[in-house]
Amino acid sequence: MPNEYEGTVKAAFWRFAHSHYQTKKPLFLAEAALFVWFTFFALVYGSAVLAGWLPTIIETVVGVMLVFGPLALGLMHRRIRIEAAKGPDALYRKRVAVNR
Q: Which of 5, 15, 31, 46 has the fewest Cβ atoms within 10 angstroms?
């Protein structure tokens, strides 16, 4: 069952994508940097946990933000880049389609 806020979050996401990337092309380099960041910190925290490190609650929250924050940003940037590759007005069409 879809959430009542799901449509508004999607609309806000595509509104941001259209307003931010209507005049410039999304860079693959930014996406790659976020995935490298995710991989590095996932390996660091994963190897520390495997070595016997038990983090506190605050260290766990910071670790989750350092690992999954860049992953989420990278995946969102990838969605924007893939949609923008469909044509010069693809982000506008997606924005209008989600607002319906």
A: 5
